[in-house]
Amino acid sequence: AHPGAPDPTPGTFVLWFLLAACGSGLLLAITNQMTLDVASVPFLWVMPLAVYLVTFILAFSGLYSRVAFGALLAFGLGIEALLEAGDASVPILLQLMGGAGVLFAACMVCHGELARSAPEPKHLTAFYLTMAGGGAAGGAAVSLGAPLLLTDFWELAAFLLLAWFLLGVVMWTDPASRMRAGGRPWAWRGLLLVGVVAGAGFVLPVVSRDGGTLARERNFYGVLHVLDGTSPEAGRIRGLRHGRILHGSQLQGSGRLGVATTYYGSGSGAHEAIRQHPRRATGPLRIGIVGEGAGTLAVWAQAGDTVRFYEIDPAVIDLARRYFTFIDDSPATVEVVLGDGRLSLERNLEPGGAGHRYDVLVIDAFSGDAIPTHLLSVEAADLYWAHLETDGVLAFNVTNRHLNLAPVIRGLAAHTGHRVVRVERQADAAFDIAFSRWLLVTRDPAPFLAADGATPEPPEPSRRWTDRFSNLLHVLR
User: Fold this and answer.
1) Residue 123: C-alpha distances to residues 7, 13, 105 (Å)
2) pLDDT value of position 328
3) How far, in Å, CA of 18 to CA of 288, rounded?
4) Rounded to an integer, what distance in angstroms lies between the CA atom of residue 79 and that of residue 56?
5) For 123-134, what is the mean pLDDT?
6) Is 320 exposed, middle or buried, given 0-12, 13-18 or 19+ CB atoms closer than 10 A?
7) What is the CB neighbour count within 10 angstroms for residue 17?
8) In the chain, fewer beta carbons within 10 Å around the N or the C end?
9) Distance of alpha carbon 135 from alpha carbon 21, whole angstroms
10) Pick the residue with more confidence: 350 or 398?
């Protein structure tokens, strides 16, 4: 005990609580963003956590400089605002470095100010308890509060701006600060300007992207938007967007609703898998699709066909029915199964190891540009072929900006003794068709090599993922 040391004021307790909450909230918000845009893999959980913990070590070791890390936070705010304003084509390494960098800067400010304001020993119990409560509150705000209260991913911007605001508060209240009580007005103007510019950098791109929004839904799986827009080549278009990634669109106007668009247009790998299938000329097909999107692939089914979509996100199912007509207008029998695609297929296995027999099984269950790695393991491949006919075809959408998934698919094919055909479709703005790359895995590639843009895929090099091992670094572009 130090006689005469002042007791912490209620305002000090509030500041401790907010600084701790801001750090943990940023950790979860940035982790959520990374796993949404890339993949939900351990590497992207551990890296932000490591950065977060390192800032505690550095800050409480006395290695915090308010000027240096305040400037670094200002720089990080600018970088993150530019990343938010950019599109999904920003290189993945730049996204990861930007996220980790701004997390480091902001947490150093939050934890550094906690270390600077640590009280005398007799108050340390209350200090650490307040920190723990703040950390729990920050995590709860992101995990529980944000999905209920916010319609988009505003929590990352909110916590970054909160860190900048708290830096201003401690400069105002710290007796040792040269900016205390309004001193150095030019510095206060600079703080205010950085906050305003960063706030505008976070908000304006989201507002501009949301022009023409018909519906927005947020849940555990992310944020979905239904947007109406126009294209000089294709005219009026309605799109379904998950985060910054388009998951399907439909041309508007008489006679255009049944035109397949985006990654599923005429000549795409999914289209060719259905059109060139040997059974197409002799009878109806049974088609399974993991990942519904707007339901575009129902366009390629014919009368007598059976199409079954597997979709994990109930909001996708609802919006696809309410705002798009692909499924309702299909002449085939269309079913939608709610649940994880792999788990749903496992539940449908019969005692003998066989499941629903599909002629074509399409794997297109991406979240943002991320990949659910459990759908790309050799165990998943065994499950797929338990559901496919002998002459069936397994179609993977590998159109991905960040990851080269072709070696992984080649590994799956080698595991099951099948061949791979690559089908690339170039963009066609007149029909809102985007460039797409599909890999078709089949026992007999000959029928599918007849398609335009189809080439045999070499068996090597390949990567074999299992349920126990997958390596994201091996497939980064």
Assistant:
1) 8, 11, 28
2) 94
3) 49
4) 23
5) 95
6) buried
7) 18
8) N
9) 5
10) 398
Quick one: pLDDT at residue 191?
77
- The residues, any chain, with a CB within 8 Å of residue 162's CB and separated by 6 or more, are 18, 22, 25
Between the CA atoms of 125, 129, 132 and 133, what dihedral angle is there, to the nearest 10 degrees? -170
Q: Which of 342, 347, 401, 410 is nearest to 373 (CA)?
A: 342
Residues 185-223: tens digit of each pLDDT: 777 777 788 888 888 877 777 666 666 788 989 888 888
How far apart (Å, rounded) are the C-alpha atoms in residues 442 and 244?
Answer: 33
pTM of the model as a whole:
0.84
Which residues, including other chains, have CB under 8 Å from residue 255's CB and lie 6 or more apart?
none
Paired residues of 251 in beta bridges: 237
Q: Which residues are paired to 335 by β-bridges?
A: 308
Q: What is the CA radius of gyration of the chain?
A: 26
Q: Give the tokens for residue 103.
A: 């997390």
Query: Which residue in this structure is represented by tokens 């351990």?
Result: 42
**Is the pLDDT score of 369 beyond 60?**
no
Report the candidate in 353, 341, 330 with the shortest Cα–Cα distance to residue 289: 341
Residue 6: pLDDT over 80? no
SS (H, E, C) the chain: CCCCCCCCCHHHHHHHHHHHHHHHHHHHHHHHHHHHHCECCHHHHHHHHHHHHHHHHHHHCCCCCHHHHHHHHHHHHHHHHHHHHCCCCCCHHHHHHHHHHHHHHHHHHHHHHHHHCCCCHHHHHHHHHHHHHHHHHHHHHHHHHHHHHCCCCCHHHHHHHHHHHHHHHHHHHCCCCCCHHHCCHHHHHHHHHHHHHHHHHHHHHHHHHCCCEEEEEEECCEEEEEEEEEECCCEEEEEEEECCEEEEEEECCCCCCCCCCECCCCCCHHHHHHHCCHHHHCCCCEEEEECCCCCHHHHHCCCCCEEEEEECCHHHHHHHHHHCCHHHHCCCEEEEEECCHHHHHHHCCCCCCCCCCEEEEEECCCECCEECHHHCCHHHHHHHHHHEEEEEEEEEECCCCCECCHHHHHHHHHHHCCEEEEEEECCEHHHCECCEEEEEEECCCHHHHCCCCEEECCCCCCCCCCCCCCCHHHHEC
Strand partners, 393: 360, 442
| Residues facing residue 360 across a β-bridge | 287, 393
* Residue 140: other Cβ atoms inside 10 A: 15
